[in-house]
Amino acid sequence: MTNASNSTRKPKVTDQLDTRPAIFGRTVTSTFNKYFELKHKPPGNIRTCWIPPIVFGTALVNLPKLLKLRSYFKKERKEYHKKHPDDVRVLYYADCLDETNGIANNLRNVVPYMREHGMKAYLAGNVFNTRPCGVVENGYCILLPRMFSMEQLGYANSELAIPRVAPALRLLKRYPVDIIELETPSPGAWAICVCAKIAGIKVMSHYRTDVPQYTRTLVKAKWMHYYVLKLMQIFYWMARPVISPCDDYSKALVKELKVPENQVKLMPRGLPLEKFAPELRGKGVWEKFGCTREQRKVRFAFIGRISKEKNLPFLNEVWKKFSAKYDDVELMYVGYGWYLEEIKEFFKGNDSVHFAGEQGGETLASLYADADFFLFPSTSDTFGNVVVEAMATGTPAIVSDYGGPRDIVGSDNACGRILPLDENKWLETLEECRKLKLEQADTYQKMREDSHQRSQKYTLENASKAQFEYFRKVYSESYK
Fold first, then answer.
1. Same domain membership, residue 199 and residue 343
2. Which of 21, 86, 367, 377 has the most CB within a 10 Å radius?
3. Cα torsion for 35, 39, 43, 48, to the nearest 10°?
């Protein structure tokens, strides 16, 4: 989508595209023109309350353009679907695309796959404050210029942001869509939701982030917990139906966020599993960051965002006690996040713990495969991309008993274990894992084979077909 509209241009050699280190696998293919933007703000409870007035002010300022677009879309949609009755054009919008996280990684795999297979899918988000202007990455991912941004409360290296609406409207006129799926209840998603409703575009959402739980974990002010919950209830009232990737969060949407049960659609996600294979095991990648098999015979790994809401303080305490009993076990942290330096300090002097940093491509897949067990104590993940990736390489997973990961692992113990957040239970299970690897080779090998087999139900093909069938249903019900 280079030169997608008169708002974008090919990047020049002199352009400073980003002040951060390059993110694996992302290349800028065009840039937006420079727009006015408010100065990036630090986090703050009161400052967060600025967001709703800015969102509705943005919609009000652009009201004439939105009403004009509404009339244009009504005619265009009717003409387009006369010629293409089976097509449905979908835009995925997520504010968090300009960082490294499970949502961004999943969408950046799903949307290209859909486009390659004839599905009309687009992807848009908001640029990080380190970008001097909006960009298009890899020819399809549009990161809109920002108007307002601030650091997210309790969550370093992540932002709350609102994009410039004017260039988005120009792009929508050139590339009309029938449905916009909002991936997170972020300020940018609020702005897109309100503007899309005025423009007559069907808006729905995907429950990818347990925002109320994140707020309770990361924000100290109690009144913010209530405030965020109310905002979420309003958001999911506007952006229905809601896709949920697991049963636990389908129930949470109904109970906590007041979404009617008939407006919740259970639909697991898909990943590019061809990138993750058991054959990548034993290629020598683990040894670049950790110990050899002779030094440490049983390997455990956590791979993902290094942040407290993943229950990593709990895992640290468990590992401290476990590693004190055995000198042949090893834990590898792979990833980056605001909590990383605290973990390094916590394990200072403990030579059973190693850190591989943020990785991608075959190096990441090989680290999954080299691990003997994957540890994931998070109770705030609505799905668990990393759990599927680990299992796709044949690595069994030990996960918590709430959220998407437990649905992936299954309750039959064939692919891992599902545990409550109880230190004794986790210690017992780690000891069982160690014994399994060292003394029951055949049973352990069968577990690896079963893990790989179960992961194959979460393919991009299966997920994409199911999603677009559902989009067609939503379209037919929304534009009668």
1. no
2. 367
3. -60
Apex 94 CA angle, 100 and 58, nearest 5: 130
Containing structural domain, residue 235? 8-270+460-478
200, 139: one domain: yes
- What is this structure's pTM? 0.88
DSSP code of 11?
A: P
**Count of structural domains within the chain:** 2
For 161-181, what is each residue's pLDDT tens digit?
A: 999 999 999 999 999 999 999
If residue 443 lies in a helix (H) or strand (E), which one and from where to where?
helix 441-455
pLDDT (tens digit, 9 = 90+) per residue, 11-40?
775 567 888 888 888 999 999 988 888 999
Q: Report the alpha-carbon angle 248-108-336, nearest 5.
A: 75
Sole residue written with tokens 């139900």: 457
The amino acid present at 322, given as its one-letter code, is F
210 shares a domain with 352: no
244 plus 300 within the same structural domain: no
303-341 tens-digit pLDDT: 998 988 899 999 999 999 999 999 999 999 999 888 999
Which H or E run contains 194? helix 187-198
Dig out the tokens for 42 from the structure.
């630090």
For residues 451 and 471, membership in a common domain is answered with no
> From start to end of 329-383, where are the E strands?
329-334, 353-357, 373-376
Rounded to whole angstroms, the Cα distance separating 37 from 150 reads 12
